[in-house]
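tool=predict chain=A
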Amino acid sequence: MFNPTPFNMKFDPATAIQQLKQFGEFGGVNPSITDSATFTFLGARTMVETFEGSTEGCYLYSRHWNPMNKYLSDALAAMEGTEAAWVTASGMAAITCTILQICNSGDHIVTSATTYGGTFAFLKNYLPKFNIEVTFVNINNLEEVKAAIKPNTKLIYSETISNPLLRVADLEAVSAIAKAHNLKFVVDNTFAPMMISPVNHGVDVVIHSLTKFINGKNDCVAGVICSTNEFINSLINVNNGTAMLLGPVLDPLRSANILKNIHTLHIRMKQHSYNAMYLAQKLNEYKQLNVNYPGLPDHPEHELIQKMFRPEFGFGGLLTIDAGSNQKASSLMELMQSRDVGYLAVSLGYFKTLMSNSGSSTSSEVPEDTQKKIGLTPGLIRFSIGLDNDIENTFQIMKQCMVELEII
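tool=predict ok
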């Protein structure tokens, strides 16, 4: 059984990536891109053994493995401290393949109610056709999590930092519950790369949307599943592996781009977090905004996150405010966009600030009554803070926009 290194501040995901030795075919400092769909075998028996899974180092077909995808997967496994990883064509592909690999018809899932809208829609609207039952809970209420577990429960699902409400899951406590009931604990760590290493807190499978912070350029869509060799091999088994049979393979050209970008992730995360903390502290002076950021002392999990995160990477690049109504939120975002604060756009982790009204965009799949129950207000704006060099200037522009619209 895979036992990750106990959590300590000495494990540095950036150094783990930096220490990888990945060279090109002719000694290039970047690995060579292999854009072949299929691969030649020098012997017929070797092909048979590859299909049987009894050979190492042989590539069969790019839906299974491609050399460039393997390079990127190895880098991401190093970053998360897992034995292995497998990259996918989107973050949702990573989520859906993981869940469908673990669960069969008749099984049950316990999941956080505060989660990305696409994930919520898959769990709520799509899985019932496979007779997979889902119970939505407040993941921060451990007694509620325990009470939701049934004899047919197979996994607990959560986000490290929830989208868009930025609640922080107690990974060790939920992991203990999962292990006590022999369940898999799956976590989406998209909001906290390098900040938090979920496997060091007992998580079994870690998922990322690479589209966001890890790639950082918003020029591609991709995902990754990080876990044990056993789980990754089961995903890509040629006979019954969900990822192999559904085929959400990532283009190796995109893998090459992401692999280069991941080497600057540690620098970018520090700046995203620095800027977000700066704005959160400044905006928090205006209490009517209900600023929400894990780095603020009044955040409900402020103390919890400090037990799990690496201080050098800060509290993340996401913050939210409440403009008071959907109409005011829209007006504010339009005005800020016109004054170059950033873009009115979904997604996150970009080098420019992105802002969206979550309830009517990335969480629109969540029914209004559920939004109200979990505290997702109509005026909530989610900011993915960019890499601005002069963040004070950004704050002054934001402040002026809010004053003009009489939000503050």
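The radius of gyration is 21 Å. The chain has a mean pLDDT of 94.
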